[in-house]
Amino acid sequence: MNSAQPGSHASSPLTRRDFLGYSTGAALTLATTPSLFSITPPDGAKPLRLALVGFGAQGRVLAEAIVKVPGIQVVALCDIWDYAREYGRRFFKSNGTETNGYRDLEELLAKEKDLDAAIVATPDVFHAPHTIACLQAGLHVYCEKMMSNTVEGARSMVQAMKTTGRLLQIGHQRRSNPRYLVARNRLLLEARITGRLTAAHAQWNRAVSEDLGWPKKAAIPDDVLKHYGFPDMHTFRNWRWFKKFGGGPLSDLGAHQIDILSWFFDRLPSTVIASGGSDYYKNHEWFDNAMVIYEYPLPEGTARAFYQVQTTTSSGGGYFEQFMGTEGTLKISENPNLTVIYREASAPSWEEWVRKNYLRVNAAPAPDPDAKVDARETAALATYKLPVVTNKAIHQYHLENFFQSIRGKATLNCPSDEAFRSEYPIFKAIEAVETRQLVQIQEPSV
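Below the sequence we write its predicted C-alpha cells.
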C-alpha cells in the first residue's frame, strides 16, 4: 500500500508505458488501450469496499464514474437528506450493489468495519472533519475540491494525512486526465512548443441560473437541518453561495483552472490583485463574478495570468486554460472541442513534433495572409490539434489513480499536501477581492 509522496510526481515526465498505442499517424486513444490510464484489478484481488459520504450533485457525478470501474463496491452511503440516500440506494442497486444508508458519518464508521476507503463529497465546510474522521478510522480518502472553505481546515487535512499515513487524494481531476498530462509533460515541458511563457488566461463563464429547489414533500425537518448547521432548506440546497459552507465561484469553479495554472507553471504565483462583487444575485453571500491577475516568477522572467469566473454569462468561450508564449499557445479544456494549439509564424518548425505525433496539423485551411486590416497586425496563427482521444467520464481517471494507489500500483496524482499548496492562491485571490489590495503570496506552511 502506498503512502503519499508529496510533490514527487509533479515534474515527472510520462514513461513509455504512458504512450502505448502512440505511433506516427495514429491518434492516441488512451481510454481504449491498456495503459497507466486504465485500471485492472490484480487477479484474485478482492474488490475495494467504499463509503460514499455526501450524495448531492457532485456525489452523483462521482458515483456514475465509480460504477464503471471494475473491482470497486460502494457498500455504504451517508447523507443527511433521506431523499438523496434513497436515490443513491436505488442507483447502486440498479448497478448491482446493495448499500447501507446512514444519516450520520459517525454511525457509519462505527458500524461499517470492512471498508477500504471513503469518497467525501459533502459541502466544503464538512470536508475537513469528515476526511479527518475517515483517515483516523483507517480509511484512505478521496475528497472533492476545494479541500475546505478555510486555510486552517485545508491545512488540518494535510496534517491528518501525514499523521495517519493513509492516502488522501483531492479531486482536482484534470491532473489525471490523459489529455492534460500529455499537454503538460510532452508539449510544455519536453517540446517547449510555446517558447518563453509570458502569459496565461483561464476562465469559467456560465449563464445565469435559478437557485436549486427541492420536492416540498421531501424537505428535511427543521430540527435535522439545524443539527447540521443549516438555517433552512434553501441554504442546504444552495450552500455553495454561502460563506459558512463554501468558497463561492472562485473556489467552486476557479479551483479547477487556478490549479492548472500553478501545476503547468510548476510554481506558485508571487502576487495577486482581483476585483469581484455581487452584481446580479441578491440572495447570495458570495460574489458572482470575479477577475484575477496573478504574477508567476518564472526563471526566464515574470508571466502574468488572468483568470475570470462569470456566473452571469456563458459568452467568451466557456471554460479553458490557455498558456501563451513567444513561439506558440496551448489552449486546453476538459471539452476537447475547446482545445487548440497555435504556432507563431516566426516560431521554429514543429515538424518534429508532428512527426512524433505530439501534435496534429489542423485540417482547416491556412489563414489568408491578405486578411489583415491593419498593417501593424502580426501574421495569423497556424492551428494544431492535440491527438489524444479519451472516452471515459472526466472524473474516472482520477478515481482510478486513487484506487490503483490503494493497491500499490500507482502514486497519487494529487495528494493533499500538493493540493493545499495549489489551492492556497485561491484563498489569496478571495482576500484580494475583499481587501481591494495587491496581496503577496508566500509558500504556505503546513
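Confidence is low (pLDDT under 50) at residues 1-27, 29-39.
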